[in-house]
From TrEMBL:
InterPro entries: UPF0324_pro. The keyword Membrane applies. It comes from the Bacteria. Keywords: Cell membrane, Membrane, Transmembrane, Transmembrane helix. The keyword Acyltransferase does not apply. Pfam families: Cons_hypoth698 (PF03601). Its main location: membrane. One of its GO terms (cellular component) is plasma membrane. This is Sulfate exporter family transporter. It is a multi-pass membrane protein. Belongs to the UPF0324 family.
Length: 329
């Protein structure tokens, strides 16, 4: 890993080529793996580990990062078709105070750790927002507001992806060890795991109720991107007189479509059976999305992060996870 004095690299530039002799076989092998995951769904962490193994043996395809995020959003929208709109709205309202509290804790701890570890300002803000709100989506939304360098964006996304992978393995085991109910476990996943992909992947191990609670709570939490980025833009304008903060983000389209799918099925009860079929397809698709995320995580990208940045992300995540667990247990 690099020293803290080195500039942040662009992790999005790291793409592992297929080992010599396997280039022609890679599409066939990856296609077979995807087909197998659709026919025989496996736990989320197993799909992610399979992707990591595939990246190590076959290289990381150029489409894996973008493709996994696109598929994830489609699957989340599909999950909305299996939910009642009233449940979605109640989850957002009930979780407001908890989300505000954990967000405040994350911002305060992130600022403190960044100062102690001497992590550059851009990377620290992006990692903190990615941990506090919704992983890669928050990073992507805040980056233009900060006018962040590609290297800082890449490092922040790399750290979030790495910790997401850890969450898929650790959270189901800890949820069982702590004896959390389905409701408590789903809430904990939504509050303490970065990206929506890993939230739903980890929550699925707790059953349908945990998955439903985790999904709606996490998507409601994602809406905090808007006020946080607005405040960030104002702060930048005041810090740098004569300049304006970057453009404010829009509400992510997949969140709008998720709510729209839930509303359509709720308002037209005859669509409920079809909605359950669509939601089932979404749950199957999440397995493939997690596999694609594993494919996008390369050893070269992980080696590019320095220990200070990793310590910031890990320390912040542990504190946030502990606070969230105390709130829901």
């Amino acid at each position: 890993m690099r020293d803290a004095a080195s500039p942040s690299p662009d992790l999005t530039a790291h793409r592992s080529p297929a080992p010599r002799g396997l280039g022609a076989l890679r599409p066939v092998l990856l296609g077979a793996a995807v087909a197998a995951l659709l026919i025989w769904p496996v736990p989320g962490f197993a799909a992610l580990l399979a992707g990591l193994v595939g990246a190590a043996l076959l290289g990381s395809p150029s489409w894996s990062a973008r493709g996994s995020q696109t598929l994830l959003k489609v699957c989340v929208v599909a999950l909305g078709a299996g939910l009642d709109l009233g449940v979605v709205l109640r989850a957002g309202a009930d979780g407001f105070s908890t989300a505000a509290l954990t967000l405040g804790v994350a911002l305060a701890v992130g600022a403190l750790l960044a100062k102690v570890l001497r992590v550059d300002r851009e990377t620290a803000i992006l990692v903190t927002l990615g941990t506090a709100i919704c992983g890669g989506s928050a990073i992507a939304a805040a980056a233009p507001v900060l006018r962040a360098r590609p290297g800082s964006i890449g490092v922040a996304i790399g750290i979030v992806f790495l910790l997401n992978a850890v969450a898929l393995i650790v959270f189901p085991a800890l949820g069982a060890a702590f004896g959390l109910s389905a409701e408590s476990y789903g809430l904990w996943c939504a509050l303490a795991i970065h990206d929506t992909s890993s939230v739903v992947g980890a929550a699925a191990s707790g059953g349908p109720e945990a998955l439903e609670i985790a999904t709606v709570t996490k998507l409601a939490r994602a809406l905090w991107i808007l006020p946080v980025c607005a405040v960030l833009s104002i702060a930048i304008a005041r810090r740098e007189p004569g300049t304006k903060g970057g453009r404010l983000p829009r509400v992510p389209l997949f969140i709008v479509l998720f709510v729209g799918a839930a509303a359509l099925v709720s308002l037209v009860p005859a669509l409920a059976p079809a909605g359950q079929v669509v939601a089932g397809a979404g749950r199957h698709g999440l397995t493939v999305a997690l596999f694609a995320i594993g494919l996008s995580i390369t050893p070269a990208a992980l080696r590019s992060m320095n220990w200070r940045q990793l310590a910031l992300g890990l320390g912040l995540w542990i504190v946030l996870g502990a606070v969230a667990l105390a709130l829901v247990a």
